Amino acid sequence: MAGNTTKIIIVAQAEGEAASGAEETHDAIVVEGEHAPAEGEAHAATEAHAEVFPPFDPAGFGGQLFWLAVTFATLYLVMSRVALPRIGGILETRRTRIEGDLKEAERLRIETDRALAAYEDALAEARKNAHAIAEETRSSIKADIDNKRKSVEADLAQRVAEAEARIQQTKTAALSNVDAIAAETARELVAKLAGKVTAQQARSAVALVVKE
Amino acid sequence: MADPNKVDPIHQFAITDIISFGEDGFSFSNSSLFMVLTVGAICLYLLLSTTGRSIIPSRAQALSEMLYEFVANMVRDSAGMEGMKFFPFVFSLFMFVLVANLFGMFPFFFTVTSHIIVTFALAILVFLTVIVYGFWRNGPKFLKLFVPAGVPAYVLPIVVPIEIVSFLSRPISLSVRLFANILAGHITLKVFAGFIVTLGSLGFLGWIGAILPLIMTVAITALEFLVAVLQAYVFAVLTSMYINDAIHPSH
After folding, report:
1. Could B15 and A64 be called an inter-chain contact, meaning their C-beta atoms sit closer than 8 Å?
2. How far apart, in whole angstroms, are the C-alpha atoms of residue B58 and residue B50?
3. d(CA B160, CA B145)
4. Is ipTM > 0.90 here?
5. What is the pLDDT of residues B196-233, one digit of tens each?
6. Domain residue limits at A43
C-alpha cells in the first residue's frame, strides 16, 4: 500500500502548480508517508498544505475527526434512541398481530372442526334413531297384520267347520227323508200298478232295494 | 477547471473550509458539511418514513424496515442474539458508510469516505469496541481469541503470532479497504471523464475517439454504485464478525 500511495502522491504533485517548493514538498510527503502522521504533521501542515494529496493531508485530520465524532455520535443517538426502537416496534407489532391472527384462525378452525364433528355425530344418531323407529314400526305393523290374519283365519276356519257341520246335518236329514219319500213313492207307484200295498210291505221292499 | 487539457482528478478530494474557527483546524469544511448532510438524510428518512407506524407499510416505510431487517439479520447471523446489543452501532455504521458513499456519486458532492482519516476513525471505533467489550465480558479469557481451539500445541508458536498480527491489522484492512475502493473509483471515474473533455478539444476525430472513454465512464459509474453499496455491506459484515469475536472469543 505504501508504494501505491507514494505513486499517487507523486501524481498529485505533478498535477500541482507550485514548482518552486517542489523539493521541500516532496520531502515533506515522504516524511509523512513513511513515518507516523503525528511526526510530520506540523511540517506538512505549514509548508505543504496546498500540494499534499488531500486524503493524506494531516491539516484536515483534526476537523474531520471532530465533525465525524459529532455527526456519528448524533447518528448513533438518533438511531439507538428513536429510529431503531420505532422500526423494531413496528415490526414487533406486526409480528404479534400476525401471530394473533394466526392463533385466532387456528382457534376458529378447531371450533369449526368440532362443530362439524358434532354435526356428524348428530346426523349418525338421527340416522340410527330413524332406522330403529322404522324397524320398530315395521315389526309392530307385521305383528299387527299377523294377529289380524290369525284371527281372520281362525274365524274362517270356525265358519267353515260350522258350515260343514250344517251341511253334514242337512245331508243326513235329507238322506233320512229320501228313504221315507222313496217308500211313499214306491207304495203310491205299486198301488197304482198292482193294488194296495201296506206301508209296512213297501218299506221293507225299499230297504231291500237300498241294501242291494 | 476552465482549461480542458488540465484534468485534476485529485481536486475533488480537497478539503475547503466553509466556516473557519481560527487556526485550530476544527473549522466546518465541505467534509463536515457532507457528514452533517449524510447523518441528516439518514435521520430524516428513517424518522419521516416511519411516522405512520403502519401495520401495512408504505413504500418508504418498507424500505426503512428492509434496511432494519437486513442489518438485524446480518448481526444476528454473525454474532447471535447477544450481538444484537450492538445492532444500533452496526446499523449506524452501515447507514453512515452507505449514504456517504452514495452521496459521493453525485457530481460536485464531497465523498466523506474517500478520506482515510474518516474510515480509519470508524475502523478504530470498531476495533476499540471489540477490545473493550471483549475484555469487559470475558476478562482474560478474551485472549483465547489468539489461540484457536483444536490446534496442536507444537503449532501454536506459529499460529498465535499470526492471529495477533491479523487481529491488529483489522482496523487497517477495514479502513483501507473502504477508503481505497472509494478513492480509486472516484479517481478512475474522473480520469476517464477527463479523457472525454481532452479528446473532445481535438476536433471531430477527437469527438469520435471520445466515445470509448464515455462508455467507460458510464460503465464505471454503474460499477461505482455497486462498490458504494458493497463496501458499506462489507464494512458492516466485518464489524459484525469482529463483534462476534468479542462475544465468543474461543472460535
Report:
1. yes
2. 9
3. 9
4. no
5. 888 888 888 888 888 999 999 999 999 999 999 999 99
6. 1-56
